[in-house]
Amino acid sequence: MKNFERLLVTAALPYANGYIHLGHIAGAYLPADIYVRFKRLCNEDIIFICGSDEHGTAIEISAMKEKVTPKEIIDRFHNANKSAFEKLGISFDIYSRTSNEIHHKTSQEFFLNLYNKNLLTTKSEKQLYSEKDRRFLADRFVEGTCPICGYEEARGDQCENCGSNLSPLELKNPKSKISGDTPVVKESVNFYFPLEKFQPELEKWIKTKKDWKANVKNYCEGWFKTGLKDRAITRDLDWGVKIPIEGYEGKVIYVWFEAPIGYISATKELFEAKGTPDKWETYWKDKKTKLVHFIGKDNIIFHAIVFPAMIMAHGDYILAENVPANEFLNLDGGKLSKSKGHGILVKDVVEAYNPDVIRYAIAANLPENKDADFSWEDLQSKNNNELAAILGNFVNRTVVFAQNKFGNKIPEHKGKTRPEVFKYIENQKKVIEDCLNNYRFRDALNEIMNIGRAANKYFNDSEPWKVIKDDAEKCGGIINDCLEICHSLAIAINPVLPFTSEKILGVLNAGKANLAWDNIGKPCLKPGTELGGNAILFPQIELSAAKEEEAKEEDNLITIDDFKKVQLRTAVVLKAEKVEKSKKLLKLQVRCGGKEKQIVAGIAEHYTPEEMLNRKIVIVDNLKPAKLMGLESQGMLLAAKIDGKLKLVGIDGDLPDGADVS
Fold this sequence. Notes:
Layout: E1 6-11, H1 22-41, E2 46-52, H2 57-66, H3 70-87, E3 94-97, H4 101-116, E4 121-130, E5 135-136, E6 142-145, E7 154-155, E8 172-176, E9 184-193, H5 199-207, H6 214-226, E10 231-232, E11 234-235, E12 252-253, H7 255-258, H8 261-274, H9 280-285, E13 289-294, H10 300-314, E14 329-331, E15 334-335, H11 346-352, H12 355-363, E16 372-374, H13 376-405, H14 420-437, H15 441-462, H16 464-470, H17 472-492, H18 498-507, H19 543-554, H20 560-564, E17 568-578, E18 586-592, E19 595-601, H21 609-612, E20 616-620, E21 626-628, E22 631-633, E23 636-637, E24 639-642, E25 645-648, E26 660-661
Parallel strand pairs: 1-2, 1-13, 2-3, 14-16
Antiparallel strand pairs: 4-5, 4-9, 6-7, 6-8, 9-10, 11-12, 14-15, 17-18, 17-20, 17-26, 18-19, 20-23, 21-22, 24-25
Helix pairs in contact: 2-3, 3-11, 4-8, 5-10, 6-10, 12-13, 13-15, 13-17, 13-19, 14-15, 15-17, 16-17, 17-18
């Protein structure tokens, strides 16, 4: 085990073209915050770094769509996300941004370091160029027909219809998304980072990481097996960190390369603000610093392979000691996604619920080793059946008893020893420490709540309501014990429930003087101290309210007028055949109210052409025609998916084709 003198913790820089959702929180930010808060309670030297990732084509495209500047886009989302993090209690030491001058300068210095070592190579490649826009078009600035499925609005990097990865040059009939201009093919020179060269060193390094999560190591090994390839580190864009070399005007450093350098530039910014501008080097260059990257699994490639290779190439900085990546948090079985609008925005949910309840519900179900699900029903259950019933109940019953029977003051404990429950709590402290140090936050939370369970049992077994009748002094000792346990709980829950911890300390009039991890299980309160005002820590959450909030968050309600625009009608299938070169598509001829139309449907993996003949179905009859694999589709079938199996919505009885469905 290495002995470290300080800790440097980073959380993935969220992209500033949208609001953060609960999936982001579960992936990187809450685990990091729990870990950092724990280490602070242990009085360790630790800093917590994050900030907005503010360059790249997606931000330029958002700006173009809204007819504003990229700066307006990033300011909006940077400030909103920063506020959301604060309200959820995510305690960064700095939340910086990559548009800052210090980041541009740091990234350029990093680039020049590699350039001056002759590590970078250049390649001349064919790219699409818009003469009207007077610029090369990055992949997302191009739209055209997918060469795989024929979808006419495929992006230059991916077809959203069939999921194929593409390049702009593969698109048929490409158009500039900026002006609609038809681009031409021109040569452009860009710099490449020799990632392939660093594979042996990376493999050797990762083999030493015996305590890394299996999901992270397996992911890396998969990339190594395929073989690392050199990656372009410059792009022909206007928005970004400019290449600091004469003759390469109009090019910027690729966002994937400069974004992780944001951890370094933010650390510089932090210590400049503290008045010790050179101290950042201690955290990034001293081997006695432990660097930990908290990320979601979609960021493993950049933090476990690419950024370490960059660090190896640069030569001056420390490598990560751990990269405890989490899997995905799903909502109703579907991945939370900012780009697809499927998610619960943090900025909204913190206005509706106690932020500690949100933190608890996520922490109790963190996707540490596999994907996990979030639901409002679970949040309600966690609040009502765990937080309120265990933690809130114990604190409330203890404080109310002290208020009613001991003049709202902490009674004395005149006994020579403490009950066995204190030994249990001290042992639990060690168990919880082990979980937190090894990034097992779900387990840690369960062990913390076990202290609450043991506390309630002690209260029940001691029966202070009976003891007070015959022995007030003994009863005072019991309540003193229970108040001390409340204090220990306030410390133990602090990493996960910081706002609740503060409330309990306020009720105990304990302040933060004894808020140290080592004080768990130790008597810290002063007898005779008057207690602060008591309050219900976790009011009951009604399911209906949670359901209403879900509808609000998803913003999926439509008016009756909206629904009337969709013409649903019955139809019968006259012909059905497979579409050549497609595994998913069937071409159908259907009759709907005396007219025939062609529908191309992605159902071939679930229904054969023979099964479709003469089948009565429900279709969207007024859908704008679209082309799939070069075939026009004049409608859409209605279907439901159950456990991965597609089931068509059918018609029972003798209802004729063409009948309205409402």
